[in-house]
Amino acid sequence: MKKSIALLLTLSLTASLYGCGSTSSNQQHAKAANVTSTESSTLVEDASNSNSGLSSLEGTYIELFPEFMREEYKDWWVECIKAYETDDETIENYYKMLTETYIGKITGQKAVDTYSQDSYLFDCYFENDLKTITINGNTISGKDANGKEIFSHSYTYLEDINGLHGDSVMDNYFHVYETKDEGAGQFKYFVFTDDTPSGEYHIEFRYGENLDDLGTFIDGDYAYWMASGIPQDYDEELIHNCIKLFVDENVGGK
Q1: If exposure means fewest CB atoms within 10 Å of the residue's CB, which of 50, 52, 198, 232 is most exposed?
Q2: How many CB atoms lie within 10 A of CB 99?
Q3: DSSP 8-state assignment for residue 231
């Protein structure tokens, strides 16, 4: 059944996913929009093998959504959406929804005070002035827009934690890595979802010093924020695959 334009316009102002990509959807919003999620490929993690998961994430990443929104890729978005919709206005509204509901500017308590569970934007950018994130062996580092290194620490796998969205619980949604370096501050913990560049063509993660809040999506210090990255050296095939996956999962319901 064709989604109504009114519903799409509402959804263009309402993030339908838990986070910032194509891992797991907010089930209530998903049912309303007939948008479902798929199971991501498993990021193999073994607590006895401290950093087995990081090896599948190695590389340097930039923010995903500024790349998604490049005008040069719009025709590909449209082509992918046309596999499910034929009405031009519907297609345009889907395009806006899928590219613009993940570029929020507020997070944490300010976002909690501003948004409701029915109307909100997710911030899927890198925070703390980071523009690139690099994973190299056990080391995670980040640089600003001028190429100045902001942090660099060695990390070890700690545990898996649940993802919490209101009353919804996603078991073992995040894989937690911790640094023992003094003064790591907001980079003490990194938590990653199952997404990998070889499987889902992008990664999703959060970082901070309050582990209790890193698993919650709409409460706490990191509310309404989850960073989404794409390899800095991505080619056209990779971003086309990433866009198609995003459309297939959130328009096609695959």
Answers
A1: 198
A2: 20
A3: E
